[in-house]
Design brief:
It comes from Uliginosibacterium aquaticum. This is Alpha/beta fold hydrolase. Keywords: Hydrolase. The chain is of the alpha/beta class and 263 residues long. The chain has a single domain, classed as Alpha/Beta hydrolase fold, catalytic domain (Rossmann fold, 3-Layer(aba) Sandwich). Strands 1-3-2-4-5-6-7 form a 7-stranded mixed sheet, sandwiched between helices. The radius of gyration is 17 Å and the shape is globular. It starts with 6 loop residues before the first strand and ends with a helix.
Length: 263
């Protein structure tokens, strides 16, 4: 694990909840993904909120060797952050981060977990085929980002959002988006996929976005089937449901589940 990683912290307001929350970002992103809405909102409800950037992402070191990082390296990043926390967190992981969380659970336990628009245990093949037939321009732009190119704003909108979004928000996402490790992409395409039979099974919420262009509902259903758990969907939301103008329904569903589980 490259160290030290970028870690953001938003302390709880009022009476703190029993377990902190650790937010895990997906591909092309960083811990910044959670700062706009989710971290302050959940902290306002009493949760101690943390988010970190994987090696080579955000302000974490390793940008100069991004393509050397594997999914196993990202699992090591996650494990290191969890070890440094005084209380075991509930991990809320998005997209690629959800696959990293599944791999983590092969060798370690957690009090609870949320898979949010997660890459399924079967990997990226199904999602890639869906993009080829439905939004080939978005797939082209994602491949261009991997190679260090810049995406088009229209493709950013199609990939991340369903609701109408401001140009200011699109520009913000555009400025933060970055290449992803090609090695990690290959791992998610079949070289290092999760093995559900080996996973610990903490209380888990599997949540998708009904209008997700990148991890469509059929892929979320695959995750539920592989793990033997029900899945739920947030209506009128795209892949970046934590950034959508109407982001609250997703946050509220997670908060209700956390409260019901006693977290």
């Amino acid at each position: 694990m490259t160290s030290p990683l970028e870690v953001f912290h938003t302390p709880p307001q009022g009476q703190p909840r029993p377990h902190p929350l650790l937010f895990v970002h997906g591909a092309y992103a960083g811990a910044w993904l959670w700062q706009r809405h989710y971290m302050p909102w959940f902290a306002g409800l009493g949760w101690d909120c943390h988010a970190f950037s994987f090696s080579g992402h955000g302000a974490s070191p390793g940008q100069d060797r991004l393509n050397s990082f594997s999914i196993a390296d990202y699992v090591a990043d996650l494990a290191g952050v969890i070890r440094a926390m005084p209380v075991a967190p509930i991990v809320i992981a998005h997209s690629m981060g959800g696959l990293v969380l599944q791999k983590y659970l092969e060798s370690a336990d957690l009090p609870g977990a949320v898979l949010l628009c997660s890459v399924p245990p079967q990997g990226l093949l199904g999602a890639t085929l869906s993009l080829i037939f439905s939004r080939p321009n978005v797939l082209f732009d994602l491949n261009r980002i991997i190679g260090g190119g810049e995406p088009q704003l229209d493709s950013v909108r199609e990939a991340l959002f369903h609701q109408p979004v401001s140009r200011a928000l699109l520009n913000e996402c555009f400025m933060h988006m970055q290449p992803e490790s090609m090695r990690a992409v290959w791992d998610m395409s079949g070289f290092d996929l999760p093995r559900p039979a080996r996973m610990r099974r903490p209380p888990m919420l599997i949540l998708g976005a009904a209008e997700d262009a990148l991890i469509p509902p059929s892929q979320v259903e695959q995750t539920g089937h592989a793990l033997g758990l029900p899945v739920e969907f947030i209506a009128n939301a795209g892949h970046a449901l934590m950034l959508e103008p109407h982001w609250q329904p997703g946050a509220e569903r997670i908060a209700a589940w956390l409260t019901a589980e006693g977290f």
